[in-house]
Amino acid sequence: MSDMSLAPVIVGTGPVTFDELIAVTRDGATVTLGDDALAAIDRAREVVDVLAAAETPAYGISTGFGALATRHIPTEMRAQLQKSLVRSHAAGSGPEVEREVTRGLMLLRLSTLATGHTGVRRETAQLLADLLTHDITPVVHEYGSLGCSGDLAPLSHCALALMGEGSVRNAAGELVPAAEALADAGLTPVELAAKEGLALINGTDGMLGMLVMAISDLRMLLRTADIAAAMSVEGQLGTDRVFAAELHAIRPHPGQAQSAANLTSLMADSAIVASHRTGDCNRVQDAYSLRCSPQVHGAARDTVEYAAVVAGRELASAVDNPVVLADEGRVESNGNFHGAPVAYVLDFLAIVAADVASISERRTDRFLDKTRSHGLNPFLADDPGVDSGHMIAQYTQAAIVSELKRLANPASVDSIPSSAMQEDHVSMGWSAARKLRRSVDGLTRVVAIEVLTAARALDMRAPLTPSPATAAVVAALREAGIEGPGPDRHLSPEIETAVQLVASGAVLAAAESVVGELA
């Protein structure tokens, strides 16, 4: 439900920020159109009204769409033109997408409307804001967008709700007809005017909203992956010397330095690490999955931050076709709706998720093999042979990592022509975004299993004690009901608890309560 206690997000002529998008999509913040946005909307509408009254055909205003753009539509048919466009394009199929995805879609379309480059009327934009504020969420389906000419089908299902048609979820999450939900909220459907149908559906908003949420999730997960790595290095009697700042300064990737600094602070004052800093330690180098954690996690960080730059540019964009240039009094066709810039980085991030999960799984597996775990019980079992310990938890990790490798296959190279070859090269950005959401979920689960396994191993190093930071993470797991080492018990609930602790940021918060904010 919308949270009236949160400050409303004011949509103006400037871009929506990452924090504002998260507030609306996940926290239920309400939405208000700023005065500057309303003024810009009015100026653009004046241009559209002039062109609509002219005898010269204008694409999207007095013509058909796509491959049907050559037909001039008479004035008396233009309202029907907009209705027909939305109804025909609301052709999605498959399961409903998540509420947060649809709210992101709606917010970002509203942001583009507010730039004054689309030509909608203020009452149409206001109704879209009202749907967000009243927590009325149109039903949007998994399939239907090719990521070019915008996320057409998903956005059309949202536009359909503005017309009082189709199905929505009300604030209680109930599936109801759009007309009923609008009436219950005291809202009136709009009768779409010239160009409005096209303006409501021609944007990269779905893929962009999912990109911003993925970036937010990955920023948190990569810091949590550093925590998991620190626990693994510590639990496997690895060295922290390879994380020294001077070693990473000679390969100056910023993400690598941040990750290494995190690992150093997380492992500080560990009695376990101190126990093997002696002359009789004959181990020269740790395995790559331990020693190279900053290089992998750091490269992932740098890729996420590049994606954030692209997302920031896209948030500052007005994506529509044709676009209204109000100061010049004209409307021009363009190709800004093509999703390639967003699609590429969505695919990049799926690669990141797969590789960070891969190194996490390798660190976990080392705990379970008695030939590599430096004195720990096989599979961290209480009574090996009778008990299997975390043997199958690693199987679960491995299954997820294998799936993530398949999801890392790029969607953006798989263009397929549409609209009678008028739209002959498309981005598949929506598909890239949908698979990235599954990748982020998979990474969350893999990191959670590493944290769960490493915590058990750290307990098994007693009476040696871990660092204060990693001890705080172990304590957080125990306080959440995950027991320490002992005979086998039903493991799935413990994995799910660990997943929730990672996804909610509780693992990160536990470590940061000791060392302060991680980079």
TrEMBL record:
Location in the cell: Cytoplasm
EC numbers for this chain: 4.3.1.3
InterPro entries the record matches: Aromatic_Lyase, Fumarase/histidase_N, HutH, L-Aspartase-like, Phe/His_NH3-lyase_AS
Gene3D superfamilies the UniProt entry points to: Fumarase/aspartase (Central domain) (1.20.200.10), Fumarase/aspartase (N-terminal domain) (1.10.275.10)
Top-level taxon of the source organism: Bacteria
GO molecular function: histidine ammonia-lyase activity
An example Gene Ontology CC term for this record: cytoplasm
Functional pathway: Amino-acid degradation; L-histidine degradation into L-glutamate; N-formimidoyl-L-glutamate from L-histidine: step 1/3
Record-linked NCBIfam families: hutH (TIGR01225), PRK09367.1 (NF006871)
Protein name, as recorded: Histidine ammonia-lyase
Gene that encodes it: hutH
